[in-house]
Amino acid sequence: MDLNTLNNFLTDIAVAPFTGGSRLAWPFLVASVVLLFAFLLFSANNAVLRGQARQLLTWRYWLNGQSGLDLAYTLLNSALKLWVLVPLLASQMVATIWVINLLQQAFGPGPDWQLAAVGMAGLFTVVFFLLDDVTRFALHWALHRVPGLWHLHKVHHAAENLTPLTLLRVHPLEMALYYCRSLAVVSVVGGVFIYCFVGKVMAWDIIGINGFAFLFNALGANLRHSPVAIQFGALEKWFISPAQHQIHHSVQPQHHNVNYGSALAIWDRWLGSWRSGAEAIDLKFGLSQGQPLRDHPSTSHSPASGQIVR
Ligand SMILES: [Zn+2]
Ligand SMILES: [Zn+2]
User: Where is the Fatty acid hydroxylase domain (predicted)?
Assistant: First the structure.
């Protein structure tokens, strides 16, 4: 590898986390700032939000030992993506074709259902979004509840200062697990749709559609890793607000192992692990000190409710 190639490669590693469909791409960061201003102006509890948002204006919030670590993980994971995951991206297509072949062997030629392109794209987007979201929830649940996996996920929860960069502060193996999850969802949903609507759509059409994810990122997803506890009002019960994810990062024992959701709150409500963003009052983030909290989920039960309260 000559110096020029190495230079280009290192530049790619530094730029990749902030471009393309990444949540940290500048249009999504700008959208988060716009949404933050809207809440600061119009929210019912905007006095509290203003106090929290003031932290964002201090240099100490953005530049400290924690942010150095966040950046280190961001670059490490970016390199991992470019060296390992991007080369594997081709296998998204390969895995999708494998699913189609499997369906053809099991059930013969596809049914060739007729549906307008807009209807097909809409149906695909909804099905993909639901499966994508529930599998994210399931993997996040496992990262907390399976002791071996929790050791990986602790890296994310060790953050005591939540910034948008905390999103990428994850153990490389956790990132690999999320990649495998994504590969499975894309290939199964894409494969089934291409099989059912055979000849109507190219594989890359299917894989390229992810409208809800775009909307999710555009609607201030970056604010969940921030100290500003924004709630979604009437939609709070249905979508994971920034305040709900901040509760997920709280050191308080009653907040441990709650709000695993990514976009939808329904999975947490279904499992009884949902907490409203209204509980996000004076939160401290990070791992609880002096005890192996969340290290193993099996023992601590609330005598009153019988529910696990870690
Ligand atoms: Zn977590
Ligand atoms: Zn988080």
Answer: 126-272
User: How far apart are the CA of 45 and the centre of ligand 2, in A?
Assistant: 23
Question: Does the residue 29 lie in any domain?
Answer: yes
Ligand 1 center to residue 21 CA distance, Å? 22
Q: Which ligand is nearest to the CA of 166?
A: 2
What is the count of structural domains for the chain? 1
Cβ-based burial of 25 (10 A; exposed 0-12, middle 13-18, buried ≥19): middle
Residue 91 C-alpha to ligand 2 middle, in angstroms? 28
240-253 b/e with 16+ CB inside 10 Å = b?
A: bbbbbbbbbbbbee
Alpha carbon of 74 to ligand 2 centroid (Å) = 14
In sequence order, the 6+-apart residues with CB closer than 8 A to the CB of 145 are 257, 297
Domain extent at residue 197: 23-47+66-279
Closest-approaching ligand to the CA atom of 223 = 2
The pLDDT tens digits along the chain (310 residues) read 677 877 777 777 777 777 777 888 888 888 889 988 888 888 877 788 888 988 899 998 999 888 889 889 989 988 887 888 778 766 778 888 889 999 999 988 877 777 666 677 778 888 989 999 999 999 999 999 998 999 999 999 999 999 998 988 999 999 989 988 988 998 899 889 888 886 666 655 665 666 677 777 777 788 999 999 999 999 999 999 999 999 999 999 889 999 999 999 999 999 999 999 999 998 999 987 543 444 444 333 332 333 322 2
**How many whole angstroms from 201 Cα to the centroid of ligand 1?**
37
> What's the 159 CA to ligand 2 centre distance in angstroms?
9
User: Ligand 1 centroid vs 8 CA: distance in angstroms?
Assistant: 34
Report the candidate in 100, 126, 103 with the shortest Cα–Cα distance to residue 201.
100
Phi, psi of 250 (to 5 degrees): -70, 145
Cα(245) to centroid(ligand 2), Å: 6
